[in-house]
Amino acid sequence: MSETTDPPQPGTSSFDDHHPPARNLLDDCVHCGFCLPTCPTYVVTGEEMESPRGRIYLMDLAAKGEIPLNDAFGSRIDSCLGCLACTTACPSGVQYDKLIEAVRPQLERNVPRTPTDRFFRAAIFHLFPHPGRLRLAALGGIAYRALGIRALLHRLGVIRRLPARLRALEALLPPVTLRDLLRRTPSHVPAAAAAPAGLRVGLLAGCAQRVFFGDVNAATIRVLAAEGCEVYVPRDGQCCGALSMHAGREDDGLERARRTIDMFERHDLDIVVTNVAGCGSTLKEYGALLADDPDYRERAAAFSARTRDISELLAELPPLATRHPLPLRVAYHDACHLANAQRIRSQPREVLRAIPDLEVADIAEAEICCGSAGIYNLVQPEKAEELGRRKAASLHAARPEVIATANAGCLLQIRRHIGEDVPLVHPVQLVDASIRGVHPFRDSAKRRLPHD
Amino acid sequence: MLTTTTITEFEEVLGTEAVVTDPVALRSYECDGLTGYRVTPALVLLPSTAEEVAACVSVCAREDIPFVARGAGTGLSGGALPVAQGVVISVQRLRRVLSIDPDNRRAVVEPGVTNADISRAAAPYGLYFAPDPSSGQVCTIGGNVAENSGGAHCLKYGFTVHHIHAVDVVLPDGTLTRLGSHAPHQAGYDLLGAFIGSEGTLGIAVRIEVRLLPRPAAWRTLVADFDSLEAAGDTVTDIIAAGIVPAAIEMMDSLSIEAVEAAVAAGYHRDARAALIVELDGPHQEVASQFAEIQRLCRDHGCTHLRVAADADERAVIWKGRKAAFAAVGRISPDYLVQDGVVPRTRLAEALTRIARLADAAGLRVANVFHAGDGNLHPLVLYSEAAGQHDRAEHLSTSIAELCVELGGSLSGEHGIGTDKACSMPRQFDADSLATMRRLRTAFDPHDLCNPGKVLPTPRLCGERPGPYQPHPLETAGVIERM
Ligand SMILES: Cc1cc2nc3c(=O)[nH]c(=O)nc-3n(C[C@H](O)[C@H](O)[C@H](O)COP(=O)(O)OP(=O)(O)OC[C@H]3O[C@@H](n4cnc5c(N)ncnc54)[C@H](O)[C@@H]3O)c2cc1C
Ligand code: SF4
Ligand code: SF4
Predict the structure, then answer these.
(1) Cα(A31) to centroid of ligand 2, in Å?
(2) Where do the FAD-binding PCMH-type domain residues begin and end (chain B) (predicted)?
């Protein structure tokens, strides 16, 4: 990014007219600071301008025309993870989610980024929201690992000398097997048991999710079917727009939202379910995001009202399938986009506790983000690294046998920092294993549990 | 004077990344919890060790640069308001709990540790840190020491000053020294006593040895609703007269209840005119018998509903509601001022009636939430900036503080004097008392570099005739602005 040349005009807002942050939303903040200790960037830096209160203060100054939209302001907004821990902590009901969503596109539009920054962001947006390209990149990743190139580069210290952002991308590549990559999710699965409700449920296969976590989707489908749902997985799956929206690429995000609505409307569904917290929170916002679009306004609102996270839906459904015991100590990590954006905290724990013999352990600093947050770990790697290390330490301290979390980004980020010794799963994989009476970890997926 | 050479020197001491020079970032430091006063600092420093703080202050002393310590910036009296051309020294990177000595019930912590984190660190040993300001999740122990902060449970356990053994302080000339000790009685002057509550004007606390208390064996908490503030106030008087020392007695009026329910839905009744929160703690037997007595007293005074916390979760919800009260008022009013004053407990009802009268006269609403047990009032003056009610609100708020003095109380119960009330000090103290305070301050800070302009009235700040209604000269000069 570089400095804009326009000097600020006190009294006239520095934001342009297209959805600037609303004055009444800015005024809701009373500067009490209750949000500070839950803000990951504040916890790491101790800097006021890296806190929710500081960011809102700067937005307010920009709205009053006292500071320009420039690199100095933009970098404070860029560094926000969008984890929304601040909205949960705030007693005054400040809607920081709306503020940050209004400010990000303003910066994208009005503050030029430096060429490398632009290139890196563009690369991410050309890769992640497209399953086909991702699959190709992942294939490259497999070759890279299989041929020992990764180990060699590490030994030579090449990795350490990579720029921080590339290093982050490199380390995040999850261990995907060829089998995972070639697996395609079936498009329609009938209910395995008759349920009173007999819901028609559509699953959002996700973009990064579909490529890296095919087994999570498979588990979701099995569990839904076992609980009496008829499951549809629309084929032409593309990104729901979450990545773009979280990064302020509004037009791109809205277009993806429209296409996602079209895609699911073809199936006449009762419920749209997601197993990625970040996608879920965006699907639930479609109604608000497309409020200006006369063709989509109502359809988007109806779509959002139908959307559920998988844990949310499971907690609502009366359990049909028998749960077999899983004697495991599980640390459940709250994904920000589930806990803060969708306020879903108790449901995943309830769903897990319904599994006989399974123990859910509490972890310290549970409300602090792991540093993943959308593409954050790719664009702000230093802060993300420190947050990841912190989260790994809290998780280790709980001595879990397995860690469960409901977001692809968190899974990748935690896996990277916790190392190989504790398996990481999506909670629905534990439910699936319990219903099927098998061991939940992938290598032993077919092994029956000893006491079965 | 602050020059590029001094900035380079700070950068050499702390590293560039701990010296904030970016003008946009600096603006986020221009106020604390009292946003009416704003001054942009010239520089913000983020030291990570006590020695780094000392090094920064030494440079300031040598170069004659005013400096202001800052914790979490939750202060409500403008204590951490920066000085133009001066530096802010933030302690937010000194956040380590250095040691816990469970046998002697002591902990040594850095000043940026939050109040709540001390109790969290002590919890595994069955201990906790007693002072409990509502802002405990956020505010720092350094700020608590500087403001001598209190909270709901100060009625029984006292203020911060009763829970500090010793403080390592960087004096305004850069000397790092220790005030106090954990010996039960100390010879010589009580410098620690002078330092606690000095609002950052005598030096910067860099290491604090706190006293920890064992968790009480039992506690009971109730919420009693009343039809009038008087009935609730009389109940408080009778509880104390019965020789009971509850851990806390808090009162909220209907406006505060409305705000709290809108914010956190803690189960208070919106139709109650006043709600008392009474908590007892201590040995099982004692708590049980006194709790019965309190319930009887509430009923005697016509309480309309009595809610007894069934378990720890319900107790937590009740307190969450009370502690969110200030911030929650943002839900029912676009803007508000938090006042803080003390009246003798026996004159509570009178004070509330007169506050209501003042509010009516000003045509504004006042929500009351306060530590009823020790007469510490927190009237919240609700107003709308947009509707141009600011000046009226400010007048009303100041008259309430001065009403407290008139009723034989004090200008501040726990939020400090800071910038906000410096000019009202002569209402409570005569010239000799103020001169004595000034001499003490000069002994620590002869060159007036350490948080200048706070606590004591100065002609520059308050004009010829100190009084609350003067426009602030800095405001006229365009240095500060009030929202
Ligand atoms: C919603 C809300 C509720 C509150 N409730 C209460 C309450 O119940 N009881 C109560 O007493 N207060 C309360 N307060 C006021 C405030 O939280 C306390 O005064 C607190 O102690 C301030 O701590 P801080 O870390 O935010 O300090 P700051 O606001 O950063 O600073 C306060 C003062 O302390 C000085 N200071 C800070 N750190 C140091 C240090 N290390 N060494 C020397 N001086 C230092 C500063 O210069 C300044 O003068 C509340 C505030 C808010 C916003
Ligand atoms: S969304 Fe998260 S990172 Fe951003 S300000 Fe809020 S708490 Fe901080
Ligand atoms: S966002 Fe909420 S919690 Fe944070 S400072 Fe503003 S009002 Fe307080």
Answers:
(1) 15
(2) 37-215
